[in-house]
Every structure is written in structure tokens, then in C-alpha cells.
Amino acid sequence: MTAFLVVLVIILFGITVLQLGKIFNMSKSAEELGESSEIANLKDNNVNGWLMLGLAIFTYVLMILCFWKWGDVLLPKSASEHGVETDNLMLISMSLIFIVGFFTLWLLSYFAFKYRGAEDTKALFFADNDKLEFIWTIIPVIVLAALIIYGLFTWTDIMNVDADEDPMVVELYAYQFDWRARYSGSDNTLGEANVRLIEGANQLGVDTSDPNAQDDIVVNELHLPVGKQVLFKMRSQDVLHSAYMPHFRAQMNCVPGMITQFSFTPTVTTDEMRMDDVIVAKVKKINELRSEKSKELALKGEEALEPYEFDYMLLCNKICGTNHYNMQMKIIVESQEDYDAWLATQPNIATSLKK
Fold first, then answer.
1. Measured over all CA atoms, what is the biggest interatomic distance in the chain, rounded to whole angstroms?
2. Nearest-CA neighbor of 150 among 98, 85, 99?
3. What family is reported (predicted)?
């Protein structure tokens, strides 16, 4: 380490000397410096003008290639009620950014090219122009204000829980490196819980003396009835996690020592989403890639990859440790009848802790 620091100091000292030399050169005239002059000449202006034009063309070509090659990796349609508004807000924001960026880059590059320095050209400039400054200030203010107000109304609609719908209460419990879900049972009220009560089979630290906890149900696979609003209460056992359900356009941090919440209404069952044309195409492409990979594994004598089947997933969207990538839980959206049938087979807290 000492040798590395010595080498680093020598390199930095050399860079400092070079920079000091450039500073001293700035005090000399262009004639004295000759070809080594850092003052831009006509050749430099011409080269930079063409480079600016090339930058715009390169950016547009790259953008077209990205849309053509990776346009199919975007998320499919939203599977929740509020997701439609979220997607609309994203579409409006990205469209504005795209349009403004497209024309701004072209104007910047075009004028830098057209009006690059030349002997017979003198720059025309305005010391100030109140009218122009007002225009290019007020337009962004109006656009940004409209986007912010629209976003605030959208966020308020998403975060407001409709008490008249009597939403189903489910706890999402995060810990390194897995998830557990706790259903509130027939009383739709979660029992008290505390990490200090974690012991043995009681992984979530549920207070078993709380009457509301007796019918709570803890599972490692999340089932949701379609068309029913679900209020998620989120806790973390150890570090900051983030409950991310991309197909439902839902994300909320799970913070140690506090309870956060988020609600949404699923609108598309798992089976319906599997039949969606976009999902069918994605699954087909993934399985083609897996098939090619399996051939490579077979030559090495290793086990082939299983075919992929689409499922909704709960992921952690915070880098919470070395096994962060493993932190996922399957979500199944189904009819109310199928959900009730599944729930009836799950043991509650009082029963499971006795085993």
C-alpha cells in the first residue's frame, strides 16, 4: 500500500507540473507558441463544428438502435388500477423530455456547426433580451408546474385508502434475504408484532398474546384476489429493504423500526397475464435463450435450465447485502373463489406455533 501511495503522489506531482506549464504558456502570445498554442484557430473551430454535428447524428442513430433492439424489454400493461395513471404520468413526462431533448440537441449542434469561427464571420450577440429571457423561463415553469400538480394529484389518489371498500390488510415482512407475508385473518386486523419477540418458529415476532394475532396467517407465497383492494403494511427486520412489485407499479421502502404502507387493487389475474401477447412473446424469447444455454451446459455435463413461466414477483429494490438478488417472492393473482380456497388450507398463527 505504501508503494502504491508513493507512485500515486509522483503521478499527481507530474500532472501538477504539466498544468503549471500550461498556465505559464497562457501568458505568451500565439506567435511565440506557434503550433503548440492552445488558443483555438480556424482549423480547431472547423473540427469542433463538425464534431458537434457528428454528436447529434451519433445520438439519434444510437437512440433508434436502442428502441429497435431493446424496445421489447419494457414492462407490459399495468396489472393494477392505479398503474394506469402511473403509466400515463410516465408517458407524458418521457414524451416531453424526448421532444425537448431531440430539438435542443439538434439546434445546439446545428448552430455550433453553422456559425463556427471563420475569418470573414463576426459573431452577432445580444447583451440582453428581456422578451426572449421571459419566454424561455416561463415556458419551463408552466410545463414543470403542470407535471408536478398532475403528479401530486396522481400520488394522492394512489396513497388514499378507500375505507368504504374495506381493503384486505396484508403485512409484507422483509429480512436478509427473504420475504414473508402475514394475512390479517377473518377479523382483517393484524396482531401486534415486535422483532424482540422473534424466537424459533415465530419468525416475524408476532405477539401471540394479542387476540387479533390468533387468526393471522404467515406464508412465503403471496396470493391476492383480483378486483379487491389490498392494503400492505411493511416492516423490515434488519436493514433498509424496498418492496417492489413492478407489474403492479408499486414500490415502498421497508424501514427498520417503523411501519410503511401502500395499497393497490389487482386487475389482471396471473393466468390472464400469461395469455397477454406481450408476455407470450417475452416468455418465448426467454425460453429460446434458455434452450441455447442448456445446450452449452449439456456439453459440460451440467443440468439444463428449466423452461420459464411468467409469474408476478415481489422483489427487493434496495441493495441490502450479498444475497440481495435472491430476495423475491411469487405473487399469484386469482379469482376470489380460488383465493378463498387457498386461504382455507393455510394454518393460522395459533395452530402453526403449536406444532
1. 93
2. 85
3. Belongs to the cytochrome c oxidase subunit 2 family.
Nearest to 329 by CA among 222, 171, 175: 222
Whether the ω angle into residue 67 lies within 30 degrees of 0, i.e. cis, is no
Q: Can you give the residue ranges of every domain in the chain?
A: 40-68+76-159, 167-272+307-352
- Using the Cα atoms of residue 26, residue 27, residue 30 and residue 31 in order, give the sign of their dihedral: negative
Mean pLDDT of successive 10-residue segments in the chain (355 residues)? Answer: 80 82 63 58 84 92 90 87 91 90 91 82 75 87 90 85 81 93 90 86 86 89 94 93 94 92 94 94 92 87 88 93 91 95 88 66
C-alpha to C-alpha distances, 68 to 61, 62, 63, 72, 91, nearest whole angstrom: 11, 10, 9, 8, 18
E strands present in the chain: 168-175, 178-183, 217-219, 222-225, 230-236, 241-245, 250-254, 260-264, 312-316, 328-334
Specify the 3-state DSSP secondary structure of 41. Answer: coil
CATH class of the domain defined by 167-272+307-352: mainly beta
Render 203-221 in DSSP notation, one character per residue: TT-B-TTSGGGTT-EEESS
Cell of 322: 450479498
The single residue listed with the C-alpha cell 415502498 is 252
Tell me which residue of 183, 182, 179, 204 sits closest to 194, measured CA to CA. Answer: 204
User: Kind and range of the H or E element at 306?
Assistant: none
34 burial via Cβ count (<10 Å: 0-12, 13-18, 19+) = exposed
Query: Looking at beta carbons, which pairs linking 254-260 to residues 24 or more positions away fall under 8 Å?
Result: 254/172, 254/174, 259/233, 259/234, 259/235, 260/233, 260/234
**Surface-to-core class of residue 224, CB atoms within 10 Å of its CB (0-12 exposed, 13-18 middle, 19+ buried):** buried
Give 26's contacts (C-beta < 8 A, 6+ positions apart).
Answer: 38
Alpha-carbon dihedral of residues 101, 105, 106, 112, nearest 10 degrees? 160
pLDDT digits (tens, 9 = 90+) for 216-259: 999 999 999 999 999 999 999 999 999 999 999 999 999 998 99
C-alpha cell at 87: 403509466
